[in-house]
Structure formats: C-alpha cells, structure tokens
Write a structure and sequence with these properties.
The complex is a heterodimer of chains A (431) and B (308). Chain A has 431 residues and is an alpha/beta fold. Helix content of chain A is 31%, strand content 24%. In chain A, β17 and β18 form a beta hairpin. In chain A, α4 packs across α7 and α7 packs parallel to α8. The longest helix of chain A has 18 residues. Chain B has eleven helices and nine strands. Classes of the chains: A alpha/beta (431), B alpha/beta (308).
Chain lengths: 431, 308
C-alpha cells in the first residue's frame, strides 16, 4: 500500500512509454506495476506520466521586482504548468553577479517545497558587458550556467575572455543573441507587418549576426555554448551545422515562438511584445521542425512577468516579455504535437541535463525521486486565470490542447488541475 | 457599437465618399458670413495631443467650434503627464470630465486603438507614430476632388520619407480606394522595408517620374530625427528629391503640388514652388476644417454613441 499512486497512465520509463501504475512513498517512486494500491490515487487514464518539466529560462523577478512576480508565485505557476525545476535568469536587482544572490534564489526556491530552483549567473558585472562577473564565487555557489540574458554579451573581446574562463570550468555560456546596432529602436520583427505599422523592426540578422560571431568564438575557445530563445531559420541552420561539426552547441526555443508569427503583432497588443520578436511564418515552421528533429534541444519558457499597469501603455513603450510557465506544455502539444518520448526529452530530460539538475528529468523508475507530471494530451482548455502574479500571456483566451492534470514534487502533490475529479481516496483509506 | 476613425486601411470607397460629400457641405457652411451651425451643441470634443501640432489640433478645435461643440484641450507639457500620469489614466480622466469624443495624437503606433478600448466614446486618430493619420488622407482627397472632380485615374507620386510617414500610410490606402494610382519616390533608406500588400509602385528616379504625374505629394523630411543615418547629407537629398523650379517645369500644365506641412522650405520644396498657384498647400489646410467637421458630425450625430 503506497502513500500515493498514479494509476492508468502511459508512463515514461527507461524502456519507453508503458501503461503502468506508479506507487510513491517517502518522496520516491516505490513501485511500478500493473496495479498499485495506495492511500490516495490520481487517476491518469489517457494521460502521459513522466518526469516533471524543467525550464531553462524563467524570470522569477525576485529579488527586486516583486510586484511582477516573486519566487513563491513563480513556484505556484511552475507547479500549475507541470514544472518541478526552474533555472532562474540573473537579471534581477541586484543582478546575480555574485554568489550570495545565487544562493538566496536557490534557497528561496527550496523553501517553497514546490519546485527546485537553480540560479544562472551573469557573465559580466551588473550585466554591463564590460568586466567579468565574480565567476568563481558564482561557481562556488553552484552556478554552472552564465548569461547576461535580456542583453547579448556584445563585446567580442569580453565574450572571448568569458568563454575561455568558462570552458576551463566546464560551464555553459548562454547567449541572448541580439545585435544592439541592428536591434536599436526595434519593437517587433522587421517585415511586412512592421512596415505597415510604421514601427521599427528587429531584422532576423540581428540574431543571426550574434550566433555566427559566437560560433566562431566557440571554435576558438571550446566553450560550451547555448543559444537562448532561438527565433530565426538562419540561426537554426547555423546551429545544425555547428552540431554536425561537433561543436559543444545547444539551443532552446520558446512556446510562443513555436505558436505564433508576426501577424499576431499587427494589433499591437502588448501581450505579444517580446525579444526576440515573433518571426515570420516560415521561421515558425523551421523552428517546429528543428524541435522535432532535436536540432533545438529544449523548450524553454522565457517566462517574463510584467504587471498589468506596465502593459497598459502603447506597444513601443511596453516592457518586453510574456509569461509562459502555465501554458508551455499545452502550447507545445497544440502547435508541434511531439511524440510522448520526445515531449519529455525536450521539456524535461534534456534541459535537466543541461542545467545540471541531477535528480530531475530522469525516467520513471523505482528509486528515483518522485518529481512527476501527469499530462493529458487531449484535454482542451482556454487559459484565463493564472497563478503567476502577472497575466501577460499571448495564449490568454486561446484554445489549447493538452493540460497538466497533476504535478508531483518530491512525492507530494504540488498541483492538481481539478481536485475533485482528479484525486480520490484509494482502497486503503479509512472512511 | 461605438464608431471610431482610426485608419484608412479598411475604409471602402463608399465610406470615404460619404465623408467627402458631407465635407463639401461643410465647405459651404464655412463660406457663410456666420460660419457656424448648432449641430453639436452640448457635446464636448477633447483634443489629446502627446506630440506637437499646429494644424491638426487647431483644425479639429476649429471644426468642433464651427459645429457649436465645446472643446477641451489637453496639453502634455502643462499637464499631470509631466508627473508621470499614464495615457490610460489621462483619457479616463478626460472622459470622466465629460469628453464625448477624443482626438488622440501619440508618438507610438497603435495608441488611439488602445484609447478606443479604454473609453466608451468615439476616438479619432489624430496621428499615431508613423502609422496612420486618417483625417489627413480625407482632407487630401477632398482637395484633389475639388481640383480634378474625382480621383479615378489620377497618377499621384508621393515623394520623400515614406518609411517614417503616417501621412503616406493613410494617403496610399485612401487614394487607392478612390481610384488613383500611387507611385512612391524616394531613397531606399526612406522606403518601408517590405511593401507586401501595398497598392503602389516604387521608383527611385524622380526626374523620370515627373512627366507622368498629375500630383506630386511631397513629404516632410523630418530634420528633427537627424538625417545622418538615413541619407548622407541634406544637400544630397535636396539634389535628388527636392522640388525646385526646374523640376516643377517638367510637370504637365494641370499637375499640382501638395504637402501636408509643416514645410521645410528649401529642402523638399523651394519657396517659389511652395507659393505657386499650382501648390495646393493652403487648400489642404482650409479643407482640413471641413473634413474634420464631417468626421465629428458622423461620429457624434449619426453614430449610435450618445452624448450630453
């Protein structure tokens, strides 16, 4: 008799997807069998059950911007979206350019009891792009992922220094690829829509220029390199070639870049403002294919909360970024429809391995930590209400297919979509 | 449903001609000894201009007064906007004070659409970024109709900084709906990057284009933007795209010159051409009042919006 069982689902095991019951005790998977009895039961008929999702790219806004989000509200949003681990971006205030801020973020994550959080570190002091951040101090605090996300590390000399340093320490340099000159004054993808609106755009070349330059530096330094929120067909092609060449290169794509093209921005709704911007329909098709093929390693949300009053302004004055934790799994399932094995690989196994979450993203097997998601790939819903403090979602009101039914963190239920229907007392419980 | 005037892109010929016809009637009203009618007595029109303007704001206010409406002028420089009050709070405040229609100009594209979502009264786009300026297109069309009888078949060349021009973006779609053929002339750095879906042809040689045009519509070079990165020098622009006496002579005898103002005399147009009888610049200004009367009348009287 287990404490908790997930019954009837299609389970991501080391041998592939199998229809099994999962028993959970003391935070671990204790049984995998055709029939498991438990004190509490989550019915998972028709659902995929696999490792909890892992996000390589979340802006938790704490410390410094708690009116947009804090680590507790982000943890609630993460659990609602099926996530059990988050990599926090370092553009907080103060930024994560020293070890103690990284420790604070991870510690606050642990306190929530809903999600494991590691912090990325800044590449440069204060994200200024001039001098290296306290890299050794950050590495000592457990940081293995470095980015000035929000801005590119633009100066090639500074970037080369950082890459040489991080290569020796086995860390990853993750780049927000955006050429500041080509992006200057731009608010959306440069194309027919921006021309019609008379608003300056960011050309695809603003991203591709940086990726091309960075790959040359990867060849020079051997540093592990990750392209954040890749958005253009040209970038995908360069990443494909770099991988074929054997370079230590990986990439992520966001759900919104998989779902929407720049036509969505024609109405100038600020819930569609993000950098990189939504690209052309041709780019979107290439991104979808690249995710299926594995040229793009992972889905990452770029969860970027902004409060309502900050977004009720003209598009050009609105802050960049949209939330994504609560809709990521559904959006990917709606717009790309991956096989379940690939789904868990791109949203859990691969990102966990890249970010260094040792106990996350593991296939379901006895003895593994019970960080699990129960995902119904057929359920249809429209996101209207969010656990995040902010609701700047481009998916608000859209019909999505696939819903997180339950999330389990360390053997405990961190989210249930529909409490009454999803869970029932098992046979062992007393009335 | 509340009606607004936000863009010419979705205005059909019928809607445009209706407004032009009504404007013709207001042209007659403005020619009377007492150029005023009581049509909008009791209504309040508020001009909310976050960018500087001479003719558009004054022309809207003159139009409102000629219809006997009251006018509430919002001036950002002397308002709580200097204390950081948002656009949304500003327009909600004006509405709460009794504004029955808002004319909004803003440096950011799309701002009038947002205002239209926030308030429950008609909104007129008085110019948003480089996006749209629909009443300019109406007054330009009215001016051409007066001169040529109709726009059908007219060959109109719009010259200069198309990329940053809300006038061009409004004129192109209105002129096209009314049957004119629009040619864009200018350096590639001042052309929009992607003209997919625009009913235009593009040329870069002004001198070759001139004899084929009935109308040369000059756009203002926005000197305040600093031309340095979009063309090498101002003299170079003047040499390639400025209209002077020699170029004016290449036009056929009936052809006219237009400009939305304010003009940079000596840049896109030489003073002698600007003041030539075939320059319609002041007709455009005059017609601006009548056209805006037509717009205010249609939105406040004929629209389903109640006021008072």
């Amino acid at each position: 008799m287990a404490e908790l069982a997930i019954k009837g689902g299609l389970v991501a095991t080391p041998k592939g997807m199998l229809r099994l019951d999962i028993g959970i005790d003391r935070g671990q998977v204790s049984t995998l069998a055709e029939n498991v009895d438990a004190e509490s039961v989550i019915e998972a008929e028709g659902c995929w059950v696999g490792p909890g999702l892992v996000d390589l790219h979340a802006h938790l806004r704490e410390p410094g911007f708690e009116w947009k989000e804090d680590i507790t509200s982000a943890a609630l949003a993460a659990a609602a979206g099926g996530f059990t681990a988050l990599l926090a971006m370092p553009n907080t205030n103060p930024p994560v350019d020293t070890g103690h801020v990284a420790r604070y973020v991870a510690e606050r994550g642990n306190q929530t009891g809903m999600v494991e959080i590691r912090s990325a570190g800044c590449v440069t002091l204060g994200r200024q792009g001039l001098a290296l951040a306290h890299l050794d101090d950050l590495i000592g605090a457990g940081v293995s992922w470095f980015t000035d996300d929000g801005d590119a590390v633009w100066d090639s000399g500074v970037l080369r220094q950082a890459m040489e340093y991080l290569a020796e320490r086995g860390c990853i340099l993750a780049q927000h690829a955006e050429d500041p000159g080509l992006a200057r004054g731009g608010h959306l993808h440069e194309g027919a829509v921006s021309s019609r609106l008379g608003v300056a755009g960011l050309p695809a070349a603003a991203e591709e220029l940086v990726v091309a330059r960075d790959l040359a530096l990867v060849r020079l330094t051997g540093c592990r390199y990750h392209v954040q929120h890749v958005s253009t067909a040209g970038s995908v092609e360069m990443i494909r070639q770099a991988k074929a060449e054997g370079l230590p290169v990986t990439a992520e794509v966001t759900p919104h870049h998989l779902a929407f093209d720049d036509e969505e921005v024609a109405t100038l709704r600020t819930d569609f403002k993000m950098y990189p911007p939504l690209r052309s329909a041709a780019d979107v098709n290439v991104l979808r294919r690249a995710l299926v093929e594995g040229v793009i390693d992972a889905v990452a949300t770029d969860h970027a909360p902004h409060a309502a009053h900050e977004r009720e302004v003209p598009f050009e004055e609105a802050p960049r970024g949209v939330i994504g934790l609560e809709t990521a799994a559904a959006a990917v399932n709606t717009f790309v429809s991956l096989e379940p094995e690939t789904f868990f690989e791109r949203l859990s196994e691969r990102p966990a391995a890249l970010a260094g979450f040792a106990e996350q993203g593991r296939p379901v097997m006895v003895g593994n930590a019970a960080h699990l998601v129960v995902f119904d790939p057929h359920a249809e819903w429209r996101p209207e209400v969010f656990r995040s403090k902010s609701d700047n979602s481009p998916f608000r009101g859209r019909l999505l297919r696939g819903r997180v039914k339950a999330t389990i963190f360390s053997g405990r239920i961190s989210h249930l979509a529909d409490v009454a229907a999803a869970i029932r007392p098992g046979r062992g419980s007393s009335p | 449903m509340i009606r607004h005037l936000l863009t010419t892109e979705d205005m059909g010929r019928e809607e445009l001609e209706d407004l032009l016809q009504l404007a013709d009637e207001f042209v007659a009203v403005l020619g009377r000894d007492i150029p005023k009618v009581p049509a909008l007595r009791g209504a309040t029109v508020s001009t909310v201009f976050f960018e500087p303007s001479t003719r558009t704001r004054l022309s809207f206010e003159k139009a409102a007064k000629a219809l006997s409406a009251d006018v509430m002028t919002f001036n950002p420089a002397t308002s709580a906007a200097t204390k950081g009050e948002s656009l949304k709070d500003t327009v909600l405040t004006l509405r709460a004070m009794g504004a029955d229609l808002l004319v909004v100009r803003h440096a950011a594209a799309g701002a009038p659409w947002q205002v239209a979502e926030w308030v429950d009264v008609p909104v007129v786009n008085g110019g948003d970024g480089a996006h749209q300026h629909p009443t300019q297109a109406l007054l330009d069309a009215l001016t051409l109709r007066q001169r040529f009888g109709k726009l059908d078949g007219l060959r109109i060349g719009i010259v200069g900084d198309i990329r940053h021009s809300r006038v061009a973006r409004s004129d192109i779609f209105a002129f096209n709906s009314l049957g004119a053929a629009v040619t864009l002339v200018g350096p590639s750095t001042l052309m929009p990057g992607d003209l997919t879906g625009w009913p235009v042809t593009v040329v870069s040689d002004l001198d070759a284009a001139l004899p084929e045009l009935d109308v040369v519509y000059l756009l203002r070079i926005q000197l305040e933007r600093g031309g340095a990165t979009v063309f090498p020098s101002l003299p170079e622009y003047v040499r390639r795209f400025g209209i002077n006496r020699e170029r004016f002579a290449r036009l056929h005898a009936e052809a006219v010159v237009m400009h939305p103002g304010p003009m940079n005399r000596g840049v896109e147009i030489t003073p002698d051409v600007a003041d030539d009888p075939r320059s319609l610049v002041l007709d455009q200004v005059r017609n601006g009042v009548a056209v805006r009367m037509a717009v205010l009348f249609r939105l406040l009287v004929d629209g389903e919006a109640a006021y008072g």
